[in-house]
Structures are given as C-alpha cells and as structure tokens.
Amino acid sequence: MTAKTLWFASNNIGKINELNSILQTKGYNVKSMLDLNSPLEINETGTSFIENAILKATTLAKLVNGPVIADDSGLEILALNNFPGINSARWKGEMSYHDAMLDILEQMEGETNRAAVFISAIAYVDFDHKITKAFIGKLEGEITTEIKGNDGFGYDQIFYVPVVHATLGELSLADKNKISHHNSAIEQLLTFLQEQN
Are 167 and 158 in contact (CB under 8 A)? Predict the structure, then answer.
C-alpha cells in the first residue's frame, strides 16, 4: 500500500517527529514546512487553539498540493488562570523551555492546586474537497515541583500524568503517544479520514 502524503504546517521538529511516529503506522507520509524550498513563518493571530490551527493549515494549503494538517497546542495551568495557554510557545520570548519550566515552577511555589491540562487542536484543510475541520484532544495532569525526565519537548518534564505515574518527560515517545493530547486529536482526525474513503 502506497503511503498517503499529509502536509503538516509546522517547523517544530519535536512535534513533527511525534506526529510522524503516530501517522506512519496508519499509512501516512508526513511532510512539513521544513520540506519547503523556502522558509515559511506563520503569524499566529488567532484567539484560540482552533483558530490558530486552522490559520496555519490554511496558509500552508495555499502553497502545496494536497491536504494539510496543523496543530496548535499548549499548556493551561488552573492556578495561573490557564496561563500560558495559546501563548505557550511565545510568552517565554528568548528563554529556553528549561528556563521557562523553572519560571513556571517558581510561579507555582507553595500552590496546592497543581491541576493542569495539555490541549491540542488539530486542523485539517483539504481545498480540493472543500473541507476544513478541527479536532480537540486533551490530557489532564498536574504540575510537578521539579523538572523530571530527559525526554519529550516543551513543558513535558513538569507535566505529571497520574494514570502513568510519570511526567511526559519520563516516558518514551511510544508510551507518550498512547496517552498524549496530540494522539487524542489525531485519532479523531483518522476516524474522520477513514469515513471519507
């Protein structure tokens, strides 16, 4: 069976690898903005994860042939009024994610309510068939009191998932993919795609 190509509107190698590892097993070949001949930066001006995901997918779909998916995801921490939310990648400025995690742990010092949720909005845009859809995946967890683990990306190492008794940063990519917010949204996308065939 020939793999179907899906374009992914992202320059984030961590997200690209994670998505590729999920979709390859489903018969899809993922191409990303890193495969374009010239760099593409998309200004995320939406006010929600879904708006930003659709904006990214639509922008790339104008440049390539075939369906495009895009992810906009982030961390919402209840005690910090859902900060950093849709600005999860941007609020830190030039800080590394390691320093951003330390900053969040400092903001959370002494806080007893450590509930948090990772949210992923996956948009699917297929101009040929006039389809624009979005799917939401969530993963509930807690903010740790220290950085734990050597794997993952973003805020994975301070996001503890009670059902697996570990942070996302302590899980292998395969184990993370079984429970992640990205996987939840992608499973919904795959169900939709199967219904289109």
Answer: yes
Residue 103 falls in the annotated catalytic set: no
- Does 13 show up as a binding residue in the annotation? yes
Of 72, 103, 151, 175, catalytic: 72
Cis, peptide link before residue 39, omega less than 30° from 0: no
Find out whether 149 is annotated in a ligand binding site: no
Q: Indicate the Cα dihedral angle 171, 103, 41, 4, nearest 10°.
A: 10
Cα of first residue to Cα of last residue in the chain, in angstroms, is: 15
46: annotated binding-site residue?
no
- Residues 183-194 pLDDT 10s: 999 999 999 988
Full DSSP string of 69-104: EEEEEEEEEGGGTTEEGGGTTTTTTT--HHHHHHHH
Fill in the amino acid letter for 4: K
d(CA 132, CA 123): 7
Q: What is the pTM (predicted TM-score) of this model? A: 0.90
Residue 10, annotated as binding a ligand: yes
Q: Which element (helix H / strand E) includes 154?
A: none
Phi/psi at 174 (nearest 5 deg)?
-65, -45
Summarize pLDDT for 136-190 with one digit per residue, the tens: 999 999 999 999 999 999 999 999 999 999 999 999 988 998 999 989 999 999 9
